[in-house]
Amino acid sequence: QVQLVESGGGLVQAGDSLRLSCAASGRTFSDQAMGWFRQAPGKEREFVAAISRSGSSTYYADSVKGRFTISRDNAKNTVDLQMNSLKPEDTAVYYCAATSRYNSGSLLVRVSRYEYWGQGTQVTVSS
After folding, report:
1. Nearest CA to 40 among 115, 124, 127?
2. What is the pLDDT of residues 53-107, one digit of tens each?
3. Under 8 Å between Cβ of 98 and 115
């Protein structure tokens, strides 16, 4: 089992920055590829970003490419999502997820590939 706890959400204005963090416990963190997903009201959960087990590879949704950066610290068992130039359409609940079974980009964009999920943190961007 892997337990994931997100933090760092909040209410910001368009153009602001926010940094989300996800703390993991349980199984060996470096054995997990990690992802961030989001879900807006009335919409399906969607991929935002993912990072490989070693941190050497990162993947982004087109909608956030160039604005968001995912990073991980395997010594601290954390994965962060730095969000810059936020837009109202970024408003959603953001979820951290972990998978031990997949480690490459095209396999990490799907919700179904992840075994463990956090409870989510709300990000609201006002215009």
Report:
1. 124
2. 999 999 999 999 999 999 999 999 999 999 999 999 999 999 999 999 999 878 9
3. yes
